[in-house]
Write a structure and sequence with these properties.
By secondary structure, the chain is mainly beta. It is 0% helix and 51% strand.
């Protein structure tokens, strides 16, 4: 299973052991919105939306796209 744990993308195994796959932008505001979704068969998209300090109705949005490969598969 893949999860967003604060600013970290983790792979969690059946025994609940985890590995850090990527470190995203640090979360500086408790109102930050984080999402993780699969896009097609081989891509994972992580999004972090953080409110502006001066105008909380506006957000800065950062997006990361990762390519998924089978375990031990490597990429081309």
């Amino acid at each position: 299973m893949l999860v967003l744990d604060g600013p970290v993308l983790r792979a969690v195994d059946r025994d609940l052991g985890s590995s850090v796959l990527a470190e995203l932008a640090p979360v500086r505001d408790s109102r930050t919105i984080r999402s993780l979704r699969r896009d097609g068969d081989d891509r994972l998209v992580a999004t972090v939306a953080e409110p502006h300090a001066a105008d909380p109705a506006r957000y800065t949005v950062d997006t990361w796209t990762f390519r998924l490969t089978p375990a031990g598969g490597g990429g081309s």
